[in-house]
Amino acid sequence: MAEELSLLGMWASPFSCRVKIALKLKVVQYKYVEEDLFNKSPLLLKYNPIDKKVPVLVHNGNPLLESLVILEYIDETWQGYPIFPKDPYERAVARFWAKFIDDKLLPAIRRACWGEEKGREKAVEEATELLQLLEMELKEKRFFGGETIGLVDIVADTLSLWLTSFEEGSGVELMTREKFPKLSKWSHEFASTSAVKENLPPKDELTVFLKSLFGKPAK
Amino acid sequence: MAEEVVLLDFWASMFGMRVRIALAEKGIKYEYREEDLRNKSDLLLQMNPVHKKIPVLIHNGKPICESLIIVQYIDEVWNDKSPLLPSDPYKRAQARFWADFIDKKVYDTGRKLWTTKGEENETAKKELVEIFKTLEEELGEKPYFGGETFGFMDVAFVTFYSWFYAFETFGEFSMEAEHPKIIAWAKRCMQKESVAKTLPDRQKVYEFALDLRKRNLGE
Lengths: 219, 219
Description:
heterodimer, A: alpha+beta, four-stranded mixed β-sheet, B: alpha+beta
């Protein structure tokens, strides 16, 4: 039976990008459908009636929602490159940091860069503390996954290109080389991996888009 | 080698209850340690320095945090009996998606019932009704969310049953009247020893929630 695989995504979304990276690592062919988030397609509304968001992976007519759930599905369905660690304990640790990034770190970064002027200093402090935890977790490893990229690296994609764009667009500096030498180095190495490089959106366009989406700059 | 399993938990936590149910389903012997959430132990702070929250499972000295991550870990390590996650990757993805939905929607909205007043409270009530409707649709005519057998999503949601009485009283609605399928499902789950022995008395939970509301709203 021919595999039918489509990804409904959006060019500027780091969550869609995660799925593209994973499919590239597994060397899986798929059809990409670009969604206009201001004019969502009937297909998206049909496959994700719950929150109408991208990415949605559709495999043989079955929709999968939520990037973390999709990444796990991809890893379990296609052999080859291991995205999740094999050991159950390592897997639990990877899942923990992936959840930390999505539930705590990203909202804090958004508040720091694009939140109200009034709470800005506190928001920056909070985001900095959380980034510190991730910096410590990286330790001396090249990637969170070890020698090659894994789940946490893919989920941390927002910290590479998107954070740079956030900083440029908002004028708020968060992940400086002085404060975060390990993460800064990681960001560069991550973005240079072939599976990542060819799936990242163009930086300048991204900065313009994010600025228009999130609002006025800090200064 | 003797297995050492310790659970740092709090009696009323619907997240901690999930782990207790999973441990009971697998027949795992463990040491239960009750935490005073207003005076957290050194062990808790050491084992979960990032969030400082319960539940934390400590397996042979190594901590695993976040209830759904712990339940998956338990399922993967003690894989000889009572599988909680289905074997099919698509069904696993669905279970993970809905468990995450419960975390993000039921808990966050539910707690607004005792942490907010006025309009915000009214909005939370309406949202909760919609959330339970969505869950009832997902359950459909199945005996369990997982299908024919009790599984991961059932574990994720059934612990809230002990909190329904508190939800109903604060929200001024009847779960049985508005969401009969959910009540029927919960009662079915309560026929399982692992669930019945884990869930605390609903009156005790209500009194605890009342106390939380007093402290949050200063009444």
